């Protein structure tokens, strides 16, 4: 019986930082012919020793294969690297971190040059790439045709989540999730600061804090439901008026513990503003409307 010799899609990869190198090694390990290019050629040379083809220029690398994946520092770097490169008939997947507006402009830029375009937001750190059980994935948006054509190849390093034809939506989902992450980090930082001068082991607080955050996380579903329905009083347990009344306790505790309230104060101020509008029976969802300009 003949062995299974299914050919894997060739990939060109521009950018071999920590993330790019992780992507490259995963595609190589899965048997994809890989052409690489990097400003610092030593990184490409190292991957050549592992089976990749190192191109002399970015243009040569793009010309080598239909599918080109870009993982550079920023949108400006992409502009510089691909300047003058023939993109006609190519499939360009941009995994460079950027804004939704940059992604939409880059999609139009690619279309004008005859290329299909897909933008990506990586929800993983390099050690998670190529490790399915780590749970990393990439948001993709833009050409659905391109996504479907290369879905299997793109899913090799990490899971894939397609979020629509609007090229800016991958970046928007990426930043939205990371913004929530930083908000969580801010709350955790304040919590640890409160006990910093006490005879309390941070390691004893950590599991309590982690469990509490996990328990609170499902509240995002109620927020989403309220936003969709427009009824911010739906399913309320602790209304806005009650929570604003409790805010001074948090601020006083911070003062007594010698902790700056600067991570909490802006949110409490938004709560007070919403309450002043006569929304005391609502949940905290109305704060979102105050943020949208």
Task: Give a short synopsis of this structure.
The protein has 293 residues and is an alpha/beta fold. 50% of the residues lie in helices and 12% in strands. Helix 8 crosses helix 9.
Report on the structure:
- With 293 residues, the chain is α/β, with parallel strands linked by helices.
- It has 13 helices and 8 strands.
- The chain has helices at residues 18-29, 41-48, 58-64, 75-82, 100-112, 144-149, 151-154, 169-195, 202-216, 219-229, 240-256, 265-276, 286-291, and strands spanning 11-14, 34-37, 53-54, 67-70, 91-94, 116-123, 137-142, 159-162.
- It is elongated and about 65 Å long.
- The protein starts with 10 loop residues before the first strand and ends with a helix.
């Amino acid at each position: 019986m003949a062995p299974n010799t299914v050919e894997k899609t060739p990939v060109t990869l521009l950018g071999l930082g920590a993330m790019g190198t992780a992507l490259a090694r995963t595609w190589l390990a899965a048997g994809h012919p890989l052409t690489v290019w990097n400003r610092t050629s030593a990184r490409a040379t190292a991957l050549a020793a592992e089976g990749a083809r190192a191109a002399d220029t970015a243009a040569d690398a793009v010309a080598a294969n239909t599918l080109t994946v870009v993982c550079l520092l920023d949108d400006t770097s992409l502009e510089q690297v691909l300047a003058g490169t023939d993109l006609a008939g190519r499939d360009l997947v941009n995994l460079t971190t950027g804004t939704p507006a940059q992604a939409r402009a880059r999609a139009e830029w690619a279309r004008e040059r005859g290329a299909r375009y897909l933008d990506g937001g990586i929800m993983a750190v390099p050690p998670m790439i190529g490790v399915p059980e780590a749970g990393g994935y990439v948001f993709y948006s833009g050409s659905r045709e391109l996504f479907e054509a290369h879905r299997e190849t793109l899913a090799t390093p990490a899971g894939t989540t397609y979020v629509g034809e609007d090229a800016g939506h991958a970046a928007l989902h990426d930043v939205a999730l990371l913004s929530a992450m930083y908000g969580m980090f801010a709350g955790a930082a304040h919590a640890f600061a409160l006990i910093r001068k006490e005879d309390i082991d941070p390691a004893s607080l950590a599991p309590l804090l982690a469990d509490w955050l996990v328990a609170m996380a499902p509240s995002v579903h109620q927020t989403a439901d309220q936003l969709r329905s427009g009824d911010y009083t739906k399913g309320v347990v602790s209304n806005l008026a009650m929570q604003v009344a409790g805010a001074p306790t948090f601020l006083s505790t911070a003062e007594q513990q010698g902790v700056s309230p600067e991570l909490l104060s802006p949110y409490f101020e938004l709560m007070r503003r919403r309450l002043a509008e006569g929304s005391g029976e609502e949940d905290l969802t109305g704060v979102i409307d105050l943020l949208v300009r």
